[in-house]
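Example with several molecule types.
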Amino acid sequence: MRTLLLKSLFAAPATIGAPDADDAALMELGRALAVRGRRLFGRSLTIREIDAGSCNGCELEIHALNNSVYDIERFGLKFAASPRHADVLLVTGPVTHNMKIALERTYAATPDPKWVVAVGDCGCGCGVFEGSYAVIGAVDKVLPVDLHIRGCPPRPIDLLRGLIALVDQATAKA
Amino acid sequence: MTAVDAGGITTILAAFASVGFHAPWQRFDVDAEAWTAIAKSLGNGAADLLGLWGDVGTVHMALRAPPADPCVVSVAVTPTLPSPAGPLPFPPPLAGEGGVGASGGGTGRGSFPSVGRFHPPAIRLERTICDLYGHVPADAPDDRAWLDHGQWGLHAPLGAGTLAPRRDPTDYEFLAVHGHGLHQIPVGPVHAGIIEPGHFRFTANGETVARLEERLGYVHKGVDALMTDAGLAKAARIVARISGDSTVALSFAFSRAVEAALGIEAPRRAVVLRGVMAELERIANHLGDIGAVCNDAAFALIHAHCGIFRERVLAASDAAFGHRLMMDRIVPGGVAQDITADGGAAILAALDDIAPRFEEIAALYDDTPSLQDRTCATGYVAGDLVQRWAAGGHVGRASGRNFDARRDLAYPPYQGLSFAVPLYATGDVDARVRVRIDEVRASMRMIRDWLAHLPGGPVLTPLPQASGPREGIAITEAFRGDVLVWLRLGAGGQVVRCHVRDASWFQWPLLEAAIENNIVADFPLCNKSFNCSYSGHDL
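Resulting structure tokens for the full complex:
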């Protein structure tokens, strides 16, 4: 273990450079903010992830945000275990009928002010599960959504760009 | 003993003719008596249950009794109580129900002899058939709903499909636990981490778990219904999204089932590329799991390194096949697109980079007693349980079940390939980690061999027009175990009915056994060492 740690001291960082905020996300958030007014967060947002029916592909890529390559915490974003600690709900879908109540309760347990980000083609639309008796559909059919990050699944870099746009906008001074 | 009992099932089936076109293995329509006899044989350990699923007016069961090939047996559902006047056996009639559905009369409630009565691994599958089709398993030991939480507004959506009022989803009777000083800990469906939803009901005595009961079905998306009378392309895209972490293995099995039904073979180059993708998926998932198990034992260093390795593999997969998880790349007839010109080099560069570093991490796992203190003897699953449940993947192989679909069913490109299948007898978290470590090494070797001798030629064969109803079945080895796809194609080439059985079906119940008598705090460790799919199970 000592050799490993020593090597890590001298190795180049595995982390990639910071991507720019996603333009489309900035525009979408700009509209949402104009309606709600800006709030002061102090450059840090805590995220609670909720799988409301996904195939777990989105979860794999959201997980990747925590690895050393993407290292989401350097942008002031971190994942929390409880919705009561969260500013942002990151929701993957499609929202199933069996998850609707749990999703609504998690939203209710999150203190205001809060943001909802719909992730993936299923969370943003309904994806291939359109028309099923078991599925309600996109996240915005159940909760008000502030930002959509599409992709099947979205790449970690796309998730990062969307979330950086969110932290930039949500924490900007009024 | 096995051979004699296998002969028993063969003898039972000899009285029945195999059905129409079903490839590559046979399907038999049997009567209720033979069905029950086969269920008893399963209970005696004469064969492995590979799947049990509903169809219109029928229930199918896939089983394997080596040395015989796997086969499918089907039993017709017997209509029960055509008049709604009498008391219905199960489930109780719902208020407001009563012929509202368009086809309420023709596909009414029926029953079939329970398999779970003799062979417990069938119980949850039977509950699912009852939820989706309304076919009641007669004399079943457990008549609670499983995937149906009373939220669909429909009763038996693939059967009668009658309207049903929504029920309170918490109205579910968990199994009783009696004893002094017991308390319950309900967990989920929304969990603390970035994971899928499901409910765990722990009954603990102090810190020690006396019983865990799972309640799943939260991410049920109606996959079986979506794939009924669906176009081939649509069905392929749905199958690829049944469990995102096994997308390659599921598309692989689906494509092989379609090809079996149509009587064609994918071109040699496509077959090898499928193997490369399947092994890349296995490596990526195993790396993630090895890291996550160590992380749950508070050893973050291995997690950090494995995270970087996994990222390297996904980036190479993206460079070679244009998608990090290689979703929709395997299609009926071959692969959707050829490997990119520098894709092979990108994969080899990634393997060269991580192989020596992976060995350092594996050695670190071996040399850290504080880590093994958490993993060794934790989450023990007995060998006879994995045999009875025919649990695949690391869950089976860590408890001595010597089965790997790649070797034992030898589908291309694995036929004729010699590779070691890791086998451990300790059945604990440690053994499940070690199976994964060994498999990462083996998969790296396979990929190197294939890329060194990649055959030329086309990567896609055009699909012939189906001349009539044709059925196909295929099993592939996903990273967590064998997955089964069964389908029936119509004359127009559309999917009339398709069923996918993920490895998780036969692993989730064993997690309940694994956690028994462990402390609550070790549950994340046990759960991660299984890493069952919720979406793959809930469908």
